[in-house]
Amino acid sequence: MLEFSQVTRTFRDGAGVSELTVQITAGEIVALVGLNGAGKTTLMRLALGMLRPQQGTVRLCGSPLDAVTADGWARVGALIEVPLAYPELTVRRNLHIVSMLHGSDPRRVEDSLHTWKLAALADRRFRTLSLGNKRRVGLAAALHHDPRLIVLDEPSNALDPLSVILLREQLTRRAREGAAILVSSHHLDEVARIADRVLLMNAGRLIGELDTSGNDLERAFFDRILLDDRHRAAEEQAG
Ligand SMILES: Nc1ncnc2c1ncn2[C@@H]1O[C@H](COP(=O)(O)OP(=O)(O)OP(=O)(O)O)[C@@H](O)[C@H]1O
């Protein structure tokens, strides 16, 4: 569904991501974990065509992103950083607009409001919502049209425990129904619970998978990061 081949995108100060190679297939949940600044959001922005690679190729359903049609993009649902919404419009109106943009049935807006427990907030202006509720609207908007590829950057941020459970149920159900899902997170326990694979990012590179079968996930996480830091330092010294 989504494929990165040797993708590099660096910024002026040298930060960014390098030589990313990864595939996310239909029906699986892949989580990205890493320290702040590791490159998780950059990878996701590349996946959505919000950034262009300087080297390498990103493919969606086999097509390079430049060749993906509007119909192809309509099958993608994403939430990166803050939800894109009109602050002065109501929650319901915002979801209607998203529905029209994706060409999905506007009658399903009421289902989304119900699913995400937003019915009581449906007539409130978006700007007046709490941060967690804004994020719930963003998730409802990202998933409203039953996307085949779902890309969510730190989706559980600011959510209350009930919404975290709701999100977990939504993602596992959609993966069972064949969606490919990429999520980033700092909550190791949560990703261990839902993800089929947990990819570790460090200093702009994918450095392997985190083994989530052990008791001490934090320890496993920091051990891998530390080892990678040591390797890189040794390589830099050597050459
Ligand atoms: N537009 C930009 N211009 C310059 N540098 C950028 C830009 N976007 C990201 N970076 C840099 O690229 C690196 C990776 O950032 P990114 O936001 O992808 O990290 P992250 O893993 O998502 O971090 P966090 O966990 O804090 O969200 C950081 O050093 C960041 O400062």
Automatic annotation (TrEMBL):
It comes from the Bacteria. Keywords: ATP-binding, Nucleotide-binding, Transport. The keyword Nucleotide-binding applies. Pfam families: ABC_tran (PF00005). InterPro entries: AAA+_ATPase, ABC_transporter-like_ATP-bd, ABC_transporter-like_CS, P-loop_NTPase. Residues 2-228 form the ABC transporter domain. One of its GO terms (molecular function) is ATP hydrolysis activity. PROSITE patterns: ABC_TRANSPORTER_1, ABC_TRANSPORTER_2. The keyword Hydrolase does not apply. Belongs to the ABC transporter superfamily. This is ABC transporter. It comes from Dietzia psychralcaliphila.
